[in-house]
Design brief:
With about 130 residues, the chain is mostly helical. It is built from three helices and two strands; from the N terminus they run αββαα. The protein has two domains: about 10-70, no CATH class; about 70-110.
């Protein structure tokens, strides 16, 4: 195999080509471009970098960034945590109130609540005999 020489590779990149756009009916040249492989490569790379830059700029400087999964504004995260804690405490308060109302209904109807107020205490028995 023949090795590619750096000079010949650069020479091939700089070879000039002509791109002609013609009218199919009249064979009239509409547009003519003089191009090289290097200029086409540079043009594609420039367009690629510009598109990436525009996309990143669009995501950073507009509200579209909130649609990116995992993106979280610190303020929004803190507000979410506060709302979550508040909802949990309200849920517990509603549960305690419902239990209170149920027990109150039982007492007013003359029944005793199923749960006792305190746990049974184990008290030691005192020796009442006199020595």
């Amino acid at each position: 195999m023949a090795k590619l020489d750096a000079g010949s590779t650069l020479k091939r990149l700089r070879n000039r080509y002509r791109l002609v756009v013609m009218n199919d009916d009249t064979y009239e040249e509409v547009v003519t471009f003089k191009l090289s492989r290097l200029s086409v490569y540079v043009a594609f790379c420039t367009v690629f970098v510009l598109l990436i830059g525009l996309t990143v700029g669009l995501m950073i400087f507009t509200p579209l960034k909130y649609y990116i999964p995992g993106y979280d504004d610190l303020k929004v995260g803190r507000e979410y945590q506060q709302v979550k804690y508040k909802a949990d405490s309200l849920e517990n308060a509603v549960k305690h109130q419902a239990d209170y109302i149920d027990n109150l209904k039982l007492v007013l109807s003359g029944q005793t609540p199923a749960t006792l107020d305190t746990a049974r205490l184990q008290t030691p028995k005192e020796d009442l005999s006199d020595d």
